């Protein structure tokens, strides 16, 4: 009898439009204010009026998360790559905070499943759109920052982004340095960069290639890799970093 009375006065469990318990487990963070999490997954399409979109959608959290992400990644790169110059660090940061990387992480974790969308956005594949997924990652980070502070946000970024730093920096699909250098060189009227193998070492099954790239017979970069393709990518990255002080426009833009 007493137990039934307690149950009667116990507050009803709040209902949410998504399975927040499962999402929090995937994120690796439990919210003190679950409403922040709901806001983070609320796409602007789920609100009819522009004023409502601004106030209740995840766009403002995305804006905040972008800034927090930039700071965390910048500090991490500054501490980890102590001998790299500003140009190289800028290239690395541009990749780690790019839409391709954030979208890939969100897709791998199935974050899109939790997006709150309208029917139109749903029908056009909104849960898999790169822009939606990248924005969602930043919005979740912004929500975590507001709810738990910088330390909680840093843990989230380390867990889902920075632990995979080498993968993201070395996989061509996240950024093609050769293509970027080629486009820049041709845009300046300098022609095609020239690549040359300058050294090979190791047994046939475990060779290391050292490649030099020359641009305009004035700039060069050097890189190593387990195959010619990777070595050329690293050489192009080195050339871009060296040229960035004289040509800041060569710096990587968000993908």
What features would you describe in this structure?
With 255 residues, the chain is mainly alpha-helical. It has two domains: 20-170, Ribonuclease III domain (Ribonuclease iii, N-terminal Endonuclease Domain, Chain A), CATH 1.10.1520; 177-250, Double Stranded RNA Binding Domain (2-Layer Sandwich). 56% of the residues lie in helices and 9% in strands. Strand 1 and strand 2 form a beta hairpin. The longest helix has 31 residues, at 130-160. It starts with a helix and ends in a 12-residue tail after the last helix. The mean pLDDT is 87.
Secondary structure layout plus pairing:
Blueprint: H1 2-9, H2 20-27, H3 34-40, H4 50-56, H5 59-80, H6 86-96, H7 99-108, H8 119-123, H9 130-160, H10 165-170, H11 177-187, E1 194-201, E2 208-215, E3 219-225, H12 228-243
Antiparallel strand pairs: 1-2, 2-3
